[in-house]
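thought: fold this chain, then report.
action: predict
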Amino acid sequence: MSYHNMPMSLFANVLAGAVDDTVVDGTGLRGSYDFTLEYYAGPGGRGVQEGRELAPDPNGPTLEVALRSQLGLRLEARKGPVEILVIEHIERLSGN
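observation:
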């Protein structure tokens, strides 16, 4: 994946989707960055199945290895407070 003009706080959100967990930006890096991250995320989705995209290399590095070797970043498991949004009630809009 190639990322352009990506702030680390937004990249943390991208990683959260990839690892299916909360990821908090603890890099302290400000600004936006251009970079490429290559890793094996699984057999591929619909584009691969339909022949529109190349299948990923199953011998490629895992996400954690790629983060460390390609970007010098690491995921570190911690427990701590995080902000969450709780929706307690929702109603349909009226016709007006």
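thought: worth noting. DSSP finds three helices and two strands in the chain.
final: tokens above.
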